Structure formats: structure tokens, C-alpha cells
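User: quick one, sequence for these C-alpha cells?
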């Protein structure tokens, strides 16, 4: 009988892939990394505009958003409960260890954060709104400012009821916390 891979493990794999790519980017000037990187570029990229390829890029971040916010949330809603208090704690811990600024709550990572009065701005709502935005392609990328803007639409009214902007770096920090949360949840399964 084949054993299926638990969704938590898939989210863990997404997180570890992102961590590997960031590690590779930091080390790609070292000789053995440099050779692998040059070989990859030569064999894969024929479009001259893409030769300045770097790894924690907008595409990688969007893949991580899907793997860490959309995919597991559907599983967890059906199978288990997410401990949002622990999730927020992990994100804040990562922000403190990776960022130069003080973060007291998850909302501090965002440049702008708007929601209608009938919605909460707690971590559970933020994750749900981001999940909805990503799964419905309600994402705008500003490459000049390295910023993502996400929004969610109320299905009943058709109006935006959530909109938030976050820098690429802060989104990476947020996703790192989410990824570590999943890795820790795998350990306790």
C-alpha cells in the first residue's frame, strides 16, 4: 500500500526549497556554487533579459505563498485546527531575528493595511485574506519598489474588504515564520 505525503510535509518541502534557494543566492559567488549557477543559466535561460536571475525573486515568493498559505489552509480547515497564536509568535520571532526593525505584531510587517470594519485584523483573518487574494490572483507586484499588494473581494457585495501592501523582504520574513511553523507542526505529528 502506497503512503501518501501529508500536506504539512508538502508545505515543509516548499519552505525548505525557498530556504535552499536563499542559501544558494547568498553563496553563488563561491567557486562550486558559481559553477552550478553558470551551468544552470547556460542550459536553462535563453532569454537575455532573464540572465540577471536571482533566487528570492517575486516568482519564488508567489510559489511560497501558494505552498505555505493556500495549499495547507484547505487541508487544515478540514483536518485540524491551526494554532494561530503559535503561528503569530513564530512570525514575530523570525521578524526579530531577520529584520532590523522591531515588530510587535504581524501587521507591523505591512506597509499599508486596510480592511472594512466588519472584519477582524487578527492573524487568522490576515492569513485567510492573503490566502484568498493569492488563490484568486488578487496580487499586484511593483518591481520598482519591491512591493506586493494583496486584496480580497467580498463575494456578496463585490467590494474590496481587505487590501495590504508589503515589501518583498517583509513578505519573505512572514513566509519564513509560516514555514517554520509548519516544520514544527510536522515534528509534533
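Assistant:
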Amino acid at each position: 500500500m502506497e503512503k501518501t505525503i501529508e500536506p504539512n510535509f508538502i508545505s515543509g518541502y516548499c519552505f525548505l526549497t525557498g530556504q535552499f534557494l536563499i542559501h544558494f543566492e547568498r553563496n553563488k559567488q563561491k567557486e562550486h556554487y558559481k559553477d552550478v549557477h553558470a551551468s544552470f543559466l547556460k542550459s536553462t535561460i535563453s532569454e537575455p533579459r532573464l540572465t540577471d536571475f536571482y533566487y528570492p525573486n517575486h516568482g519564488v515568493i508567489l510559489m511560497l505563498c501558494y505552498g505555505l498559505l493556500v495549499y495547507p489552509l484547505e487541508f487544515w480547515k478540514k483536518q485540524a485546527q491551526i494554532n494561530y497564536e503559535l503561528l503569530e509568535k513564530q512570525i514575530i520571532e523570525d521578524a526579530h531575528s531577520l529584520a532590523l526593525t522591531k515588530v510587535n505584531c504581524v501587521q507591523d510587517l505591512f506597509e499599508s493595511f486596510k480592511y472594512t470594519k466588519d472584519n477582524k485584523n487578527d492573524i487568522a483573518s490576515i492569513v485567510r485574506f492573503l490566502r484568498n487574494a493569492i488563490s484568486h490572483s488578487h496580487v499586484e507586484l511593483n518591481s520598482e519598489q519591491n512591493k506586493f499588494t494583496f486584496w480580497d473581494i467580498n463575494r456578496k457585495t463585490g467590494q474590496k474588504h481587505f487590501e495590504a501592501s508589503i515589501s518583498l523582504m517583509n513578505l519573505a520574513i512572514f513566509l519564513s515564520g509560516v514555514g517554520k511553523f509548519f516544520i514544527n507542526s510536522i515534528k509534533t505529528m
